[in-house]
Amino acid sequence: MNHGTMLRALLPLVLLAGGALAQDDLKDRVEKLETENRELLRRFDALAEHQETLELGELVPELGDGEKGLAPAASKVYRADGLSIGGYGEALYQNYAGNKTDTADFLRAVLYFGYRFDESWLFNSEIEFEHASTGEGGEASVEFAYLEHACGEDTSVRAGLLLVPMGFLNELHEPTTFLGATRPETESRILPTTWRELGAGVVGEAGPWSYRVTAVTGFDGEGFSQAGLRGGRQKGSRAKAEDFALVARADWVDTPGVLAGASVYHGDSGQETAGLGDTATTIVELHGEVRTGGLWARCLVAMASVDDVAELNAANGYGPTESVGEELSGGYVELGYDLMRHLDESSTSSLTPFLRYERIDTQAEVPSGFTAAAANDFDVVTVGLNWKPIDRIVLKLDYQDFEVAEDRVNLSIGCVF
Question: CA torsion 53→57→126→266, rounded to 10°?
Answer without folding.
Answer: 180
